[in-house]
Design brief:
Chain A: One of its GO terms (biological process) is protein lipoylation. Chain A: InterPro entries: 2-oxoA_DH_lipoyl-BS (IPR003016), Biotin_lipoyl (IPR000089), GCV_H (IPR002930), GCV_H/Fam206 (IPR033753), GCV_H_sub (IPR017453), Single_hybrid_motif (IPR011053). The complex is a heterodimer of chains A (about 120) and B (about 375). Chain A has about 120 residues and is an alpha+beta fold. Chain B has a 6-stranded mixed beta sheet with strand order 11-12-13-10-4-14. The chains are: A alpha+beta (about 120), B alpha+beta (about 375). At the A-B interface, helix 1, strand 4, strand 6 and strand 7 of A face strand 1, helix 2 and helix 7 of B.
Chain lengths: ~120, ~375
């Protein structure tokens, strides 16, 4: 199940665990990234908490946790090479895997059609 | 995801357009409000590539939002205009030769900095370039300060562009061959594409390059001619900021303002010997008492270059500490970001003088952590001015 947030994150939900990243639209708006900071495995977040930081030459941006849950895996590849987020944001450049506090909580997020409508 | 830095929500209809506004849109610029103008922050290639292109070839910047001011002596003697301006700036204007340019500062009675500017001797008048956000205040300040002896005019009929980078000379040579004989801080008049322009060999990137003042009616024409060259790329305000930061150059409003003095800002070089204690025209500018005392006795804090040790950029506003626990505050960052050419984070800021020596390790607070930062010499890149 692929879902999206209005804050431009995507979530691929499988068995109560969501793989989370930022959308192509978001990566394009940010421009070339030079730094990514990810949360620690085991950290728990509420929906809307700042879970990661991405930085371009010009600006720092927060990536918000899209739902309540616990970080069970992070993608070190984007820390080692932030440009991966620009080249493959909705594939290899996922940010973290989140074990959802409530597996059904993703149901209320945007589907792909609704997200596309949001970003025009 | 939410960007902490984003265009204001103010209505763009109230923003002023430069003569190159439509050209920016046609080039795919992302426009943002800046100092009352709608300006390009980046084009399609983005800040990183624009920055690197400027250092590798040539970048073209629209800086028409900046103020261009003429000071014409009523007596007809340029020396009278120079001496009048010296009442407002701690700079030796009198010895500035015709066709030469010099960096300067407007100071206030407390020794703070009202604006920084470029001053040119154009033979029968002085030509100033001042910051966009300060230009109306600067104009009023000049009228009040030297209106008795000079006619002061804020030009509204000229655009200003900058062509910067190692290929800038070769590109401009195709329009005006004599440009090769100019040296850093020379200023000349030239016909580019049959348009009368004022060209200075200077800029805000640390690279060799030129700033070109063009009559508004011909601004698009001349700019397009330069952009047609395969080595030239249009560059937005984003890369302009990262280029000047790597070059160690101050941004007014960030690194210098009315709360900083020239000596605190490590800008002693902008105050020539003739205006310092013992000089033939020592003092005689606003704040002279404090500024000259600081030359002799030093200051309690100083602007320094900062190199964060990791990959995380340390941005303007970050607090600086002597210790890794954040218990001993010693200053703050005024400009910071990522330097694409040095491929690491770079910053500048003010620290207590005891911690201002190059090589001193201090700590910057970023998102609740205290990251090691080394006080470093400026600039971060080698300047390539043609002296």
């Amino acid at each position: 199940m692929l879902k999206f947030t209005e804050e431009h994150e995507w979530l691929k939900v499988e068995g109560g665990v969501a793989t989370v990243g930022i959308t192509e639209h978001a990566a394009g708006q940010l421009g070339d990234l030079v730094f990514v900071e990810l949360p620690e495995t085991g950290a728990t977040f509420s929906k809307g908490d700042s879970a990661a930081t991405v930085e371009s030459v010009k600006a720092a941006s927060d990536v918000y946790c899209p739902l309540d849950g616990e970080i069970v895996e992070i993608n070190q590849a984007i820390v080692d090479d932030p440009s991966l987020v620009n080249s493959d944001p909705q594939g290899a450049a996922w940010f973290f895997k989140l074990k959802l506090a409530d597996p059904r909580s993703a149901d209320g997020l945007l589907d792909e059609a609704a997200y596309k409508e949001l970003v025009g | 995801m939410r960007q902490t830095w984003r265009p204001d929500l103010e209505s763009n209809s109230r923003l002023i357009h430069t003569p190159l506004h439509a050209l920016h849109l046609s080039l795919g610029a992302r426009m943002v409000p800046f100092a009352g103008y709608e300006m390009p922050v980046q084009y399609a290639d983005g800040v990183l590539k624009e920055h690197l292109h400027t250092r590798a070839a040539a970048g073209l910047f629209d800086v028409s939002h900046m103020g261009q001011i003429i000071i014409r002596p009523k007596s007809g003697r340029i020396g009278d205009a120079a001496l009048a301006l010296e009442r407002l700036v701690p700079v030796d204007v009198l010895s500035l030769a015709e066709g030469r340019q010099r960096y300067g500062l407007f100071t206030n009675p407390d020794g703070g900095i009202l604006d920084d500017l470029m001053i040119t001797n154009r033979g029968d008048h002085l030509f100033l370039v001042v910051n966009a956000a300060c230009k109306d205040a600067d104009y009023a300040h000049l009228k009040e300060g030297l209106g008795d002896s000079c006619d002061v005019t804020l030009l509204d009929d000229r655009a200003l562009i900058a062509l910067q980078g190692p290929h800038a000379e070769a590109v401009l040579c195709e329009l005006w061959a004599d440009v090769a004989s100019m040296r850093f801080m020379d200023v000349a008049e030239a016909d580019l594409h049959d348009v009368g322009c004022i060209i200075s060999r200077s800029g805000y990137t640390g690279e060799d390059g030129f700033e070109i003042s063009i009559p508004t009616a011909s601004a698009v024409d001349v700019t397009q001619r330069l952009l047609e060259h395969p080595d030239v790329l249009a560059i937005g305000l984003g890369a302009r900021d990262s280029l000047r930061l790597e070059a160690g150059l101050c941004l007014y409003g960030n690194d210098i303002d009315t709360g900083t003095t020239p000596v605190e800002a490590a800008l002693e070089w902008a105050i020539q010997k003739s205006r310092r204690a013992g000089g033939e025209r020592a003092g005689g500018f606003p704040g002279a008492e404090r500024i000259l005392a600081e030359f002799a006795g030093g200051t309690s804090r100083r602007r320094v270059g900062l190199r964060p040790e990791g990959r995380a950029p340390v941005r303007g506003g970050a607090k600086l500490f002597a210790d890794a626990d954040g218990t001993a505050p010693i200053g703050s960052v005024t400009s910071g970001g990522f330097g694409p050419s040095v491929d690491c984070p770079v910053a500048m800021g003010y620290v207590e003088t005891a911690h201002a020596g190059n090589g001193t390790q201090i700590f910057a607070e970023v998102r609740g952590k205290y990251l090691p930062v080394t006080v470093s010499a400026l600039p971060f890149v080698k300047q390539t001015y043609k002296r």
